[in-house]
């Protein structure tokens, strides 16, 4: 049977599809060699080389000499000049903002403490003003900002864009954060939990890079988890997957903010640790507990070890459900290193059904406090459609 000849239209569609696969792969992994691109996309090395050359000329991609496995290779990234994105992390006590180009080169960042009971109206105004100042300092303006990602320390109902349960982040209840901030900035805004954002940050740029199945454990004032399944962050059908802190591990345990008893959050979260060590140390903060433990104070060491054991019990249950390859531990408590990771590791290795031979690695976050803001940057990059038109120019539009 004679093979059917492709029409010019189908050839054009195929070329556009192949270019889209190349750009999507570079966006997902933050930078790859041409050989890696061929492996990921299923395209031939010659096709990849031609498309990379074409998109580099169109200003979509950038290439630079690099090495992979000791061999010289062309390192392919998104072009820096495509535009800027911002990542915002509002935690229970801190605000962090990073402005980056789409190739993840940070051009401006800032950090400031927040009051314990901060409110959405005040902080959204603050974010707007800070972004304007930061863009000006980078020689840019609001129109240069393609999109903004926002990470919040609470479960987000993706159907409404609001905090999923009242009382978890008081002062933000009922606020459609993406819509409100988008109206103020006149730029596209996307919102997710800080654990999901941090998981994405570590997947693109940190300790989970190259792992298809991993868990980011956010251990700090709150206890949360970001789930990476099949190379993507899994949020669940309503956007509330990964609420590790509200896993009950102690029947009739302490009352949690969610209304249940015995949650990991109520046993190992920042407030629980501070309350345990508050006697004789007024005004203690979580970072003080970590400093005291790392300086050798036995009471603080024991408190962090007990927290690691509790978090490890919940994490082991998650491992038996999901069978991850790696667990990345971040958040303020993650800075305690092996004081926290050691007890976690013991609990996971003891309880995981696969046995110690197949137990997941448990490692410290590589991005540290920057995991969530850089993950929010990656959220923004993912939502921006970057493609060349037929004239060779680039088009950017938020999805």
Q: Catalogue the unreliable spans.
A: 1-8
For the biggest β-sheet, the strand order reads 6-5-4-7-10
Under the CATH scheme, which architecture of the largest domain would be assigned? Answer: 2-Layer Sandwich
Percent of residues in helices comes to: 40-55%
Largest beta sheet, briefly?
5 strands, mixed
- Rg, please? 23 Å
How would you summarize what this structure contains?
By secondary structure, the protein is an alpha/beta fold. The protein has helices at residues 8-29, 34-41, 45-57, 120-137, 177-185, 194-205, 264-268, 270-277, 286-294, 298-322, 331-334, 338-351, 371-383; strands spanning 32-33, 61-68, 71-78, 84-90, 94-101, 106-113, 145-152, 156-157, 162-163, 189-193, 214-219, 223-229, 232-234, 326-330, 361-364, 384-388, 394-398.
